[in-house]
C-alpha cells in the first residue's frame, strides 16, 4: 500500500494466507475502492506464487524446525520472492557487480549499491563470515542482509566461515531485528566463489538445524525460505533438507496457502489417518492430488482448472493428448509437474450412475496408492460440484470407501485428506458430521463389551504403572499406539495389531462460544495468545475413565468430587495424549497441571481434562509413591494435595484418572518467557493444580484428608 498522506514512497506489506488472497484477488476492484475511500491508500495484491512475466514460485519442501518456525525450499527468483528479508551473496567490499548481488541491485534500484558504499565508508570492509544490512529499494522485501561467504579453498576453514555467515544471519533475524518474520537464503558461495554445491547446501541446512537445536531464541521469526531459480540448486537444497530434517511433513504447521486452518482428524490404528481439512487442493503437499473432470474434458470444473493452472503447461499438454472416449479409464495417472506432489489422479466422470462412479473412483485411487507405494493422498469433495451429488451422500460414500480400504489393508501406512475450499461451509459441515458419526461407530462397535472388562482387570492389578510405562515407551520409540487399558502385557505382534486397529479418536476445532471467548481473554491477560482450540473425543479412553471412576465411587463413601484443571503438554506429545491419555513423561516439569495459563510455552498445548482423585491426603515433594490410608495399611490414597483446606496443587498417581477433553494451542508473549510460574516439585505421579471455576479440566476427588 502507498499513501500520499504520509510520504510519496511510504509502503506497507501486510501478509495474508493464500486462501484469503484468492478471495480478495477475485474482488480486487472493490477492495481497492474501499481502501482508497477509507484510508486514501492505493492497494496492490501480490503473491510469491505469482510471478511477474515468469513461472510461478514452487515450494518443494516444508518442515517445522520448531513448533513455531518453518523451513521450506523454493524454486523462485530471489529478486521477486516476497519475504521480510533477503540474504545476498556479497563480497567484502559490498560491490554488487554481478551474479545474485547484481540482479538484486538491478531489480531493487541503484540506491542499494549507494547505501552499501556508505556502509563501507563508515565501517570498512565486511570480514568473511560477517554480514551488513541495507534497505531493499524497490524489491518486495524490507531488508537485504549482505552475507560475505568464503571462497572455496578446499579446507575446513571455508566450511567454518560459511557456517559463521549463516549463524550471523540467523542471529540478526532472530535477535537483532524483531520486525523480521520471514527470511530467504540462497546457496551462499556456491556461485563465483566455487563452493561445492552439495557441500554448501548441506552446511547451510546443518547450521540452521543446529542453531535451533542448541538454543531457542526469543524471536518473531516464523519462516526460513531456501530459494534458488536453478533446478540443480533446488534439488540439492531439498536433498540436504530431507537428509538432515527428514521427509516433508503433512501436518502441520500453519503455512500460508499450503496448510489448512481447520482440521478434523480420525486416527485408525497405526499409520492410517483420515483428515477433513480446509484449504486449496492444488496447494497440498501430499504424494498424490486427485483431480476431477468430465470424460471428454478433464480440465473442466473449478477444481480441475485450479490444479491444471498450478501444474503448468506440461500437464495441459499431457491432458490434451488423452482421448478417453476410445479407451475409457475411470482414473488416469499423470506426473505432478509443478504441483507439490508426485502424481495426479484424474477422475473422469460420466453423467449416468454418478454415485457408483464416485464409489469406484475413490476405491481405484486408493488401490493405485498401493501400486505406486505412496503414503499420502488429497481428495477434493468429489461429486459435490457440477456432478450435483448431495453433499451428505458424497461424504458418506467417500468416508465409507476410505474406511473399508483401511480395514482391508491394515499394514498400509496412508494419510488421506479430503480438502474443502475454505468458503464452502456447507460441504465442510457435511463431511465433519460424517466423520464424527464414524468416530462414534468405530469406537463403540469395535470393543464395547471387552472395554469394561479389560479396564477392570487393568485397574485391579498392582502393576498398572509399569504397564502404562511400557506402553508409553513403545509408543515413543516405535510409533505404536497402545490403548492404556490392556489387561495383560504381551509382546505378540498379532495381539497388538488386533488392539491397535480398534483404537480411534477424533480431534476437531470448536466454535468460539462466549465461554471460550472469556477463557481466551484470560489467556491473553497472562500473555498467552490462543492459536486454536480443539475438542478431543476418544471413546476408548472415556470407557476406561468411567470404569476407574466407578471403582473409586464404590470404595469412597462420599463419592469422588470433581475439579477442572489444565495440563501443560509439549507440542510434540499432543497427538500421543489424544491417543493413549496422560502420563507424566509427556509433560514438564514432572507431569504438573497448571492452575493458570502461565505454564504454557511457545507452540505448546494445554490439555483440558477430567480427573478423578478419589481418596486424597496432604503431600509434599518428597513423596514418590501413594501414601497408605493408615499406617501399615495396604490400601493407598488416590491423590495428594499441597493444602487440605484450599488445594492449589493435586497429584494423582494413576493416569487413568485423567481424560483429555480439550486442546488449547497457545503462543506465549516473548516478554513473559523468563517468568514461567512453576509450583512445587513432585517427583512421581501426575501433578495438577486447582483451577478457577470456569476452567477446562475437571477433577474427581473423593475424600481429601
UniProtKB/TrEMBL annotation:
UniProt-recorded Gene Ontology molecular function terms: ADP-D-ribose binding; enzyme inhibitor activity; histone binding; NAD+ poly-ADP-ribosyltransferase activity; NAD+-protein-C-terminal glycine ADP-ribosyltransferase activity; nucleotidyltransferase activity; STAT family protein binding; transcription corepressor activity
Cellular component GO terms, alphabetical: cytosol; mitochondrion; nucleoplasm; protein-containing complex; site of DNA damage
Protein name: Poly (ADP-ribose) polymerase family, member 9
Protein's GO biological process: DNA damage checkpoint signaling; double-strand break repair; innate immune response; negative regulation of gene expression; negative regulation of transcription by RNA polymerase II; positive regulation of defense response to virus by host; positive regulation of DNA-templated transcription; positive regulation of protein localization to nucleus
Subcellular location: Cytoplasm; Nucleus
Sequence ranges assigned to domain PARP catalytic in this UniProt record: 490-684
Main location: cytoplasm
Keywords linked to the UniProt accession: ADP-ribosylation, Cytoplasm, Glycosyltransferase, Immunity, Innate immunity, NAD, Nucleotidyltransferase, Nucleus, Repeat, Transferase
InterPro entries the record matches: Macro_dom, Macro_dom-like, Mono-ARTD/PARP, Poly(ADP-ribose)pol_cat_dom
Similarity annotation: Belongs to the ARTD/PARP family.
Keyword Cytoplasm: yes
Residues covered by the Macro domain: 58-245, 261-439
Species in which this protein is naturally found: Cricetulus griseus
Amino acid at each position: 500500500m502507498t499513501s500520499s498522506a504520509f510520504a510519496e514512497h511510504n509502503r506497507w506489506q501486510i501478509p495474508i494466507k493464500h486462501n484469503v488472497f484468492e478471495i480478495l484477488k477475485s474482488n480486487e476492484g472493490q477492495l481497492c475502492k474501499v481502501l482508497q475511500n477509507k484510508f486514501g491508500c492505493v492497494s496492490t495484491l501480490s503473491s510469491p506464487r505469482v510471478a511477474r512475466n515468469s513461472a510461478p514460485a514452487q515450494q518443494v519442501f516444508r518442515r517445522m524446525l520448531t513448533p513455531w518456525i518453518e523451513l521450506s525450499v523454493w524454486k523462485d527468483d530471489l529478486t521477486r520472492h516476497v519475504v521480510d528479508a533477503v540474504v545476498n551473496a556479497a563480497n567484502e567490499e559490498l560491490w554488487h557487480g554481478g551474479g545474485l548481488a547484481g540482479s538484486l541491485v538491478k531489480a531493487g534500484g541503484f540506491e542499494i549499491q549507494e547505501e552499501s558504499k556508505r556502509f563501507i565508508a563508515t565501517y570498512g570492509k565486511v570480514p568473511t563470515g560477517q554480514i551488513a544490512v541495507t534497505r531493499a529499494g524497490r524489491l518486495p522485501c524490507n531488508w537485504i542482509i549482505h552475507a560475505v561467504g568464503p571462497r572455496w579453498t578446499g579446507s575446513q576453514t571455508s566450511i567454518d566461515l560459511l557456517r559463521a555467515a549463516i549463524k550471523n544471519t540467523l542471529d540478526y533475524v532472530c535477535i537483532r531485528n524483531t520486525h523480521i518474520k520471514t527470511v530467504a537464503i540462497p546457496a551462499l558461495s556456491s556461485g563465483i566463489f566455487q563452493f561445492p554445491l552439495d557441500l554448501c547446501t548441506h552446511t547451510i541446512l546443518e547450521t540452521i538445524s543446529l542453531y535451533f537445536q542448541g538454543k531457542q531464541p526469543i524471536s518473531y521469526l516464523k519462516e526460513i525460505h531456501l530459494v534458488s531459480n536453478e533446478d540443480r540448486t533446488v534439488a540439492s537444497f531439498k536433498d540436504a533438507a530431507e537428509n538432515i530434517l527428514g521427509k516433508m511433513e503433512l501436518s502441520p504447521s500453519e503455512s500460508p496457502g499450503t496448510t489448512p486452518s481447520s482440521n478434523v482428524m480420525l486416527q485408525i490404528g497405526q499409520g492410517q489417518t483420515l483428515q477433513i481439512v480446509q484449504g486449496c487442493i492444488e496447494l497440498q503437499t501430499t504424494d498424490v492430488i486427485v483431480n476431477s473432470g468430465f470424460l471428454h474434458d478433464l480440465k473442466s470444473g473449478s477444481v480441475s482448472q485450479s490444479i491444471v493452472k498450478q501444474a503448468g503447461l506440461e500437464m495441459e499438454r499431457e491432458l490434451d493428448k488423452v482421448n478417453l472416449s476410445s479407451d475409457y479409464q475411470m482414473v488416469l495417472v499423470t506426473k505432478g509437474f509443478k504441483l507439490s506432489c508426485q502424481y495426479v489422479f484424474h477422475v473422469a466422470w460420466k453423467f449416468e450412475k454418478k454415485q457408483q462412479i464416485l464409489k469406484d473412483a475413490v476405491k481405484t485411487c486408493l488401490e493405485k496408492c498401493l501400486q505406486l507405494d505412496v503414503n499420502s493422498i488429497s481428495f477434493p469433495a468429489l461429486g459435490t460440484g457440477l456432478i450435483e451429488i448431495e453433499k451428505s451422500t458424497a461424504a458418506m460414500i467417500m468416508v465409507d470407501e476410505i474406511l473399508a480400504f483401511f480395514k482391508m489393508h491394515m499394514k498400509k501406512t496412508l494419510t488421506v485428506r479430503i480438502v474443502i475450499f475454505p468458503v464452502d461451509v456447507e460441504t465442510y459441515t457435511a463431511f465433519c458430521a460424517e466423520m464424527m458419526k464414524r468416530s462414534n461407530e468405530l469406537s463403540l462397535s469395535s470393543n464395547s463389551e471387552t472395554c469394561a472388562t479389560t479396564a477392570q482387570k487393568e485397574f485391579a492389578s498392582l502393576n498398572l504403572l509399569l504397564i502404562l510405562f511400557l506402553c508409553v515407551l513403545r509408543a515413543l520409540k516405535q510409533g505404536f499406539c497402545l490403548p492404556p487399558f490392556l489387561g495383560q502385557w504381551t509382546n505378540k505382534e498379532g495381539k497388538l495389531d488386533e488392539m491397535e486397529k480398534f483404537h480411534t479418536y477424533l480431534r476437531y476445532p470448536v466454535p468460539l462460544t462466549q465461554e471460550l471467548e472469556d477463557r481466551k481473554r484470560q489467556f491473553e491477560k497472562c500473555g498467552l495468545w490462543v492459536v486454536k482450540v480443539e475438542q478431543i473425543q476418544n471413546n476408548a479412553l472415556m470407557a476406561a475413565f468411567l470404569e476407574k471412576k466407578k471403582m473409586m465411587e464404590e470404595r469412597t463413601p462420599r463419592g469422588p468430587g470433581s475439579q477442572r484443571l489444565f495440563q501443560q503438554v509439549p507440542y510434540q506429545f499432543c497427538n500421543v495424549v489424544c491417543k493413549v491419555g496422560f502420563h507424566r513423561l509427556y509433560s514438564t516439569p514432572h507431569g504438573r497441571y497448571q492452575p493458570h495459563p502461565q505454564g504454557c510455552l511457545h507452540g505448546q498445548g494445554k490439555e483440558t481434562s477430567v480427573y478423578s482423585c478419589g481418596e486424597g491426603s496432604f503431600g509434599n515433594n518428597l513423596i514418590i509413591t501413594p501414601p497408605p490410608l493408615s499406617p501399615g495399611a495396604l490400601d493407598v490414597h488416590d491423590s495428594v494435595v499441597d493444602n487440605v483446606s484450599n488445594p492449589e496443587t493435586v497429584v494423582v498417581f494413576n493416569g487413568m484418572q485423567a481424560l483429555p477433553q480439550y486442546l488449547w494451542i497457545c503462543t506465549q508473549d516473548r516478554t513473559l518467557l523468563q517468568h514461567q510460574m512453576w509450583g512445587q516439585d513432585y517427583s512421581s505421579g501426575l501433578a495438577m493444580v486447582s483451577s478457577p471455576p470456569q476452567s477446562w479440566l475437571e477433577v474427581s476427588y473423593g475424600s481429601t484428608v
